[in-house]
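Practice problem. Given the sequence and the SMILES for NAP, write out the predicted structure.
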Amino acid sequence: MDTILITGATDGLGLALAHYYRPTAKRLILVGRRAFQDVPLTEFDPNTYCRIDLAQANGAEVIDNWLEARNIRHLDLLIHNAGTGYYGAIDQQSWADIEQLVAVNLWAPIALTRQLLPCLQKRRGKVVFISSVAAMLPAPDYAVYGATKAALDGFARSLRVELKGSIDIQVIHPGAARTGMHAKSGISRETMDWERFPPTEKVAKKIAKAIATKKPSVTIGAGNSLLGFAGLYLGRVIDRFMQRRQR
Ligand SMILES: NC(=O)c1ccc[n+]([C@@H]2O[C@H](COP(=O)([O-])OP(=O)(O)OC[C@H]3O[C@@H](n4cnc5c(N)ncnc54)[C@H](OP(=O)(O)O)[C@@H]3O)[C@@H](O)[C@H]2O)c1
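Answer key:
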């Protein structure tokens, strides 16, 4: 891969993916919302860092302008990884929070794909959406998060047919990983012990291996694949089971 852009490259899976591709990518463009001096990217060239809050409606345009200013007009791989979560009942979640979640997890990948389509088509490139196994299962107390991930799956599927192979479109469904997202979403360690989840680097490596394949959709890990399959094809049984667990 010659030119790779990763959103949400300042923490968790995105940061681990940036490290994974660093030795081989000719040009790695990293997108994050914080100032360069505040992010753990010291091994990377600050000139390859594009700072933008993806909750901003014009984020895609800002990134495109940033690329144009550096004469970058082609992309081989675009990884929509940035994501945010909220833990709690829907009536406790503020409107502003719901808006932010939908903007980062759904609007930004849709807008950025649309904006960068000419750059991707120039190289018959690839777009990767980091979804979640939550897209295939009920996600109680993460309902909006689950909805954004399920919507990404739908967008990717339609786009794949619409674009008739002019670029590759892939959706990746990781299961739980030991990243900072859980604490950021507001869930406590007592409710969810994220330390028992697989380490970030291990999950990121599996994601990168999945990206190297031509498969349109990949679920990371055999257990998650089974869960996802059950969620999709045994919907009512799974919903009832999870409802009982909620009680
Ligand atoms: N961890 C899991 O268990 C899990 C499971 C399934 C799917 N996923 C998905 O995997 C992806 C990566 O998540 P992660 O677990 O690595 O989470 P993470 O460690 O919190 O990293 C998320 C990245 O997205 C960035 N981001 C969040 N809001 C942003 C905004 N408004 N503008 C720009 N960047 C923003 C974060 O920036 P900051 O560094 O500034 O916070 C960070 O770089 C997400 O799409 C997530 O839904 C995660």
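Check your answer against the key. The helical segments are 12-21, 59-69, 95-122, 143-162, 181-185, 200-211, 222-233, 235-246.
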